[in-house]
Amino acid sequence: MTEGRVWKYGDAVNTDVIFPGKYTYALMEPEELAGHALEDLDPGFAQQVKPGDVVAAGTNFGCGSSREQAASCLKFAGVQAVIAKSFARIFFRNAINQGLPVIQSPEAVDTLQTGDTIRIDFARGLIHTPHGDFEFPPLPDSVLGILQAGGLVAYTQQKLKR
Prior knowledge:
The structure is a single chain. The protein has 162 residues and is α/β, with parallel strands linked by helices. It has one domain (2-161): Aconitase, domain 4. Helices cover 35% and strands 19% of the residues. It has eight helices and seven strands, in the order βαααβαβαβαβββαα. A seven-stranded mixed β-sheet has the order 4-3-2-1-5-6-7. It is globular.
């Protein structure tokens, strides 16, 4: 379960505005990646986001190029989940691989406003908002394991040690 503030954006938020393309080939530490999160869409986001916050958006979140930094910068900035009406397929998988939960819930997104405080129960598939509760398919145990481990690499390393 996680609780955080909502940052709401529109449709077709692409990877170039999630993590600007001009930094794609720069080697950066996690804190530097986080400092560029949503820089071209919301210049104040990286300085104001708090650990536990949630990004909500419309359709096709994460469209564009397949760069992993788009998911990583949000995770390193403290974002605990992205809730969208729909996701670009590659971003969705990159987010899981990086340990960033992604939830498709058009109904929840329609009611959410920037600044709302919400709670998400990933295992039960429930988003509790000031505007009501919204269900989503509970995340499978394998995905929960990847998220709890902090990403696919850490999850695989844990599995190999057993």
